[in-house]
Amino acid sequence: MIVVTGATGQLGRLVIKHLISKVDASNIIAAVRTPEKAGDLSALAVQVREADYSRPETLKTAFAGAEKIILISSSELGQRAEQHMNVIEAAKSEGVSLIAYTSLLHADTSPLGLAAEHIETEKYLKESGVPFVLLRNGWYTENYLASVASSIEHGAFIGSAGKGKISSAAREDYAQAAAVVLTSEEPQAGKVHELAGDQSYTLTDLAALISRESSKEIPYVNLPEHEFKGALVGAGLPEPFAALLANSDTGASKGGLFDEQGELSSLIGRSTTNLSEMIKAVLA
User: Fold this and answer.
1) Can you give the pLDDT at residue 201?
2) How confident is the model at residue 142 (pLDDT cuts 50, 70, 90)?
3) Cα(143)–Cα(206) distance, rounded to whole angstroms?
4) Residue ranges with strand state E in 66-131
């Protein structure tokens, strides 16, 4: 029995999709905060159970009978470490044989502020005594592609990443890797998978690709972190999320989102999703 936490999230749904191609759907538990929103998952014949990271009593019930759990990191900044600890404790009490945790690329050395809660969670996992494997995911390409339309509208792609190279990959790629790890016959406990895309690019490169695919001249404009954050807030993003994105761009300028080991493509048995093709899909 494999539990996918955060199963109605963007990554969780994709993990379930890939797991279903490998194991019987009845052996998959979709752990979700609001079961009423998981009708599409129920329709796939997976078990849907209530599981709220902030309500430990729901977690023990959700994890009953589970052999493996993928802990997809919470999106609630500032609360994540405590929420993750609740999941780990519930998994421990149910005697699971493996927790796979979606951490951050090179979390232990990352210059991104985002790394702090991941490091705290990794430390707690080590101290818990529960067998675990780390899926240290790099940046999602979709994080940048969400700005394609506005960059075309305003005639520029803005950011704070300078000349930093970014080795992002599609959520689909990371989800497939998670499914591979969860169903692998090879022992996974104790492994650390540093996962990133095959293509590495600067935001200047990304702007050039957007220009080519849209047939419009879209330059990259690099801003100081505080100005980029202000622009994101002005565009309607909540301040904490805007601060996270701006700080992450600054981290990218220091190499925090770069990796060229190719472990992700090795795990999934194919090249990671092509950046130009993803831009074309957004424009379409």
Assistant:
1) 98
2) very high
3) 12
4) 68-71, 98-104
Angle at 183 (CA atoms; ends 179, 185), nearest 5 degrees: 140
Beta bridge partners, 194, equal 136
Q: Which two tokens stand for residue 277?
A: 């093709």
- Whether the CB-CB separation of 112 and 153 falls below 8 Å is answered with no
Calpha distance 127→133 (Å, rounded): 14
Q: How many CB atoms lie within 10 A of CB 229?
A: 23
CA atoms within 13 A on the CB side of 156: 8
Backbone angles phi, psi at 185, to 5 degrees: -80, -15
pTM listed for this prediction: 0.96
User: Phi, psi at residue 59, to the nearest 5°?
Assistant: -70, -45
String of DSSP letters for 28-67: EEEEES-GGG-HHHHTTT-EEEE--TT-HHHHHHHTTT-S
What was the pLDDT predicted at 98?
98
Q: What is the pLDDT of residues 184-209, one digit of tens each?
A: 999 999 999 999 999 999 999 999 99
Rounded CA gap, 72 and 234, in Å? Answer: 30
Degrees, nearest 5: CA angle 47-17-181: 95
Measured between alpha carbons, how far is residue 231 from residues 84, 150, 155, 202 in Å? 31, 12, 14, 20
pLDDT of the residue at 76: 87
Q: Go through the domains of the chain in sequence order and give each one's CATH number.
A: 2-138+171-195 (3.40.50.720), 145-151+155-164+198-259+271-283 (3.90.25.10)
